[in-house]
């Protein structure tokens, strides 16, 4: 017979001791009743004590085979009374087996066996002419009460153990969920730091690189042009200073405790960048040789993360143009509606073939991880990004940033 797992059991020696004590208790109760010698046929007492011993020994395997123990106990009781041995009652010898069966999720079997034993015993004793008033009015009630209590106790133990297992499982799943959430938050924070550092430093280093190249050409032997070299080095110094300023602002935003807005809503990012600094950004790009035109404005009252995201998109798009395109002009268009801020950055340069900046999409981006970083930022405010070459030449980046998404 297949058995089902029961309540959490004491381990090892403790379980053996408990079962041995229970088995001895069952043997003792039955043996005392046999010793009292109430009724009984001609069979020698050793046979009756053999039944008592068997009933006690069954308790040693009640955890492993609870249903088998219950059925065998019921069969032994029936055989005991068929052999006309001394009266030992009905409830006490079978109570431990009923408890074990109910505790191991066999409550229906326990109720069924108990009902069958009571029915068979009552019918047999009535047919023998025993007093119905005593049998039905007293002994039957007592027997049913003891059996019912044993089954109820076993089922209660099972339910408590099941509840404990469920709580342990829920606690384990909750711990796993918290661990996964912590890992996800850590990964998101690392990605945010990487984006902030990339945006804060990458643009200015690109400008420094361009001006340094021009200054080096102006200082070539035989073609020295000191005024140009000085002008370019001034641009290098200015770009380096601005880069350091943005880097300090980024580090300060990462170190300072959040003001209640949280990292996800732009509290720190808004202190580092925003469309209010767009003029300074375009000025540095113009100084690097790219003619930039700005059309429209974001307006006041933008959510912090939307404002920072729009600025970083423009910054990264213009940086990519400086790095990877042979462009002369670029245009930044800002359109604000009631629902969203639309930012478009277009240039007249050429597309660098073979790039996969779009997370693996071929020939759609320029260099490195620029577009991938932009997509991550735009996704944070539930926006959309479109990027690709423009018919007739050039490259365009267009993002739509829902104003409500960053509020």
Q: From the alpha carbons, calculate the radius of gyration and give it in angstroms.
A: 43 Å
DSSP, total strands:
5
Counting helices, strands and paired strands, the structural category is alpha+beta
- Count of domains: 2
Largest sheet: 5 strands, mixed
Q: How do the strands of the widest beta sheet line up side by side? A: 1-2-3-5-4
Global shape = rod-shaped
Spans where pLDDT lies below 50 across 5 or more residues? 258-271, 353-368
Along the chain, the helix and strand elements come as HHHHHHHHHEHEEHEE
Task: Round the mean pLDDT to the nearest integer and report it.
Answer: 77
Q: Separation of termini?
A: 64 Å
The tally of helices reads 11
Assess the beta-strand content as a share of residues: 5-15%
> Level of helix content?
55-70%
Describe the structure.
The chain has 407 residues and is an alpha+beta fold. The protein folds into two domains: 13-175, no CATH class; 278-407, Heat Shock Protein 90 (2-Layer Sandwich), CATH 3.30.565. 62% of the residues lie in helices and 9% in strands. It contains eleven helices and five strands; from the N terminus they run αααααααααβαββαββ. It has helices at residues 13-36, 45-57, 66-82, 91-103, 107-127, 132-218, 226-255, 267-272, 278-287, 304-324, 370-380; strands spanning 291-295, 329-336, 340-347, 384-389, 395-402. It has a five-stranded mixed β-sheet with strand order 1-2-3-5-4, covered by helices on one side. Strand 4 (384-389) and strand 5 form a beta hairpin. Helix 1 (13-36) runs antiparallel to helix 2 (45-57), helix 4 (91-103) runs parallel beside helix 6 (132-218) and helix 6 packs across helix 10. The longest helix has 87 residues, at 132-218. The chain is rod-shaped, with a radius of gyration of 43 Å. Residues 258-271 and 353-368 have low confidence and may be disordered.
